[in-house]
Amino acid sequence: QRLLEDETERIHLCLGCRNMQRAEGARSALLHSHPSAQVDVLQVDTSSTTSVLRAAHEFRLRYNRLDYLYLNAGIMPNPQFDVKAFFRGLLSGQVISMLATGVGILTQKDSVTPDGFQEVFSTNLFGHFLLFRELEQVLCKGGLRSQLIWTSSSNAHRSAFSLQDVQHREGSQPYSSSKYASDLLSLALNTHYNQQGLYSSVTCPGFVMTNLTYRVFPLFPAFFWTLLMPVFWLIRLFTNTFTLTPYNGAESLFWLFKQKPESLDPYCKYHSLTSGLGNTYTEARKMDVDLNTSEALYEALLQLERDVRKKLEDQQKTYQSPKLWDNLEQSHTTA
Ligand SMILES: NC(=O)C1=CN([C@@H]2O[C@H](COP(=O)(O)OP(=O)(O)OC[C@H]3O[C@@H](n4cnc5c(N)ncnc54)[C@H](OP(=O)(O)O)[C@@H]3O)[C@@H](O)[C@H]2O)C=CC1
Ligand SMILES: CC(C)CCC[C@@H](C)[C@H]1CC[C@H]2C3=C(CC[C@]12C)[C@@]1(C)CCC(=O)[C@@H](C)[C@@H]1CC3
User: Fold this and answer.
1) pLDDT tens across 160-214, in order?
2) pLDDT along the chain (335 residues), means of 10
3) Do residues 73 and 5 both lie within one domain?
4) What was the pLDDT predicted at 7?
5) Do 15 and 103 reside in the same domain of the chain?
C-alpha cells in the first residue's frame, strides 16, 4: 500500500504469500484503492525449502528483473508471556527498554519442519536466504542496483544467538535469535554483494498490533487490544517505538525504498518510530554486530544450503522424479 501510494514511481508488485486465499484478498484490496496498479501473487512458504525453490523458479520464468526484495514473513510461535518478569521490569529502571524490545518477558516454543529445520529459523531466516540465493541472477543484473530489505526487530539480541546453535535448537528465544541472525546476515551480504550492485538493509517496524502480537494473549478477544489502545498511546509519550499500526510500522520499509542504497550504513538498523503526537519517521540505530560473527553465520548458511541441494538431488536420483526447477544442479558452492 505504501509503495503504491508513491505516485513518483510506477511499480510492478509481486506478493509472495503462503496462503493464496489471503494473497488474493490482499491483491483485491490493493487493486480496489489503486485500480491501475500491477499486482501479482506468487505462492511461497518460507518454512519449506521445496516451496522456496519452486517459487523462485516460477519467479524467474515470469520476470527477468527484481529491484527490491522485501523479506518480511516472520513468526513468533507459542509466545509465553512472563508475568513475573514483566512486573519486575515495571519496577526496575528498565521499563522503557523492556516495552520497546520485549527482551526478557517473552519466550517461545519452537517446532521442527518436515525438512528437519527449526521452524522459526527456517521461516524467519533460512527460507529468505535460500530465496535470495535463488533469485541472485534477477537481482544482480546488468550493473543495476537492487535492494534486500529484511524485517528484523528490536527484539533481536546477541545473547539469544549462538554460532554453535544457529537454529536455536536449545534455547527458548528462537524469535530473538532468528532476528539477530538476520542482522548479521545482512551485514555479510553487504560485504559479499555490494560490488555486484546488491545492497541489504534491516528494519524494525516497532511494536505493531498484528496477528503476531495478538497471539501473546491467545485467550483474549481482539477487542482486549482495542481497550488497551489508550494505555499504548500513553506509553507512546515515553517511547517512540509504539508505532501500533501496520501503516506506521511500514514507514522505514518505505523510507528505504526512497534511499540511494550506497548511502545506507550496513551496521545500522532502520527503525520505524512514532512520536507522542503520532508523527511517524525513520531513525538509523547502530546494531550490536561484528564482521567475524556475520561471516561465520554466512558460511554456516552456505553449508546448510549445500546440504539442502545435495539432499534434493539424491531424492531426485532415488525416485527418478523430473526436475521441478531448472537450476537445482547449478553449483552454488562458491560465494
Ligand atoms: N508486530 C510487531 O510488533 C513486530 C513485527 N515484526 C516483524 O514483522 C514481520 C511481519 O509480522 P507481523 O505483520 O507483525 O505479523 P503477522 O503474523 O500479522 O504477519 C506475518 C506474515 O508473515 C507471513 N508468513 C508467516 N509464515 C510464513 C511462511 N512460512 N511463508 C510465507 N509467509 C509466512 C504470514 O502469512 P499468513 O497471512 O499466511 O499468516 C503473514 O502475512 C515479521 O517478520 C515480524 O517478525 C518485527 C517487530 C515487531
Ligand atoms: C497487559 C499490559 C498492560 C500490556 C502488555 C504488553 C505486552 C504484551 C507488549 C509490550 C511490549 C510488546 C512488544 C512485543 C510483543 C508484545 C509486548 C511484549 C514484541 C516482542 C513483538 C515482536 C517484536 O519483534 C518486538 C519488537 C515487540 C516489542 C514490544
Assistant:
1) 999 999 999 999 999 999 999 999 999 999 999 999 999 999 999 999 999 999 9
2) 89 97 98 96 98 98 96 97 92 90 93 97 98 95 92 97 98 97 98 96 97 92 89 94 97 97 97 96 98 98 97 83 53 38
3) no
4) 80
5) no
Q: Tell me if residue 214 is catalytic.
A: no
88 located within any domain: yes
Q: Is the CB of 18 under 6 A from ligand 1?
A: yes
**Beta strands 268-274; 198-204: pairing state:** parallel
Q: How many domains does the chain have?
A: 2
324 in a structural domain: no
3-class SS of residue 134:
helix
Domain that holds residue 297: 49-319
Residue nearest to atom 1 of ligand 2 (CA): 228
Q: Which atom of ligand 2 is nearest to the CA of 101?
A: 28
Together in a domain, 58 and 36? no
Ligand whose nearest atom lies closest to the CA of 157: 2
Residue 113 Cβ < 6 Å to ligand 1: no
Is the Cβ atom of 155 under 6 angstroms away from ligand 2? Answer: yes
Which residues are CB-neighbours of 66 under 8 A, at least 6 positions away? 59, 135, 138, 139, 146
Does 167 share its domain with 305? yes
Q: Would 35 be classed as within a structural domain?
A: yes
Q: Is the CB of 291 under 6 A from ligand 2?
A: no
Closest CA to 147 of 217, 94, 79, 71: 71
Whole-complex ipTM? 0.97
Catalytic residue among 63, 68, 175, 270, which?
175
Predicted confidence at residue 332, as pLDDT, reads 44
Give the whole-angstrom CA distance, residue 285 versus residue 141: 30
Over residues 211-236, the pLDDT tens digits come to: 999 999 988 888 888 899 999 999 99
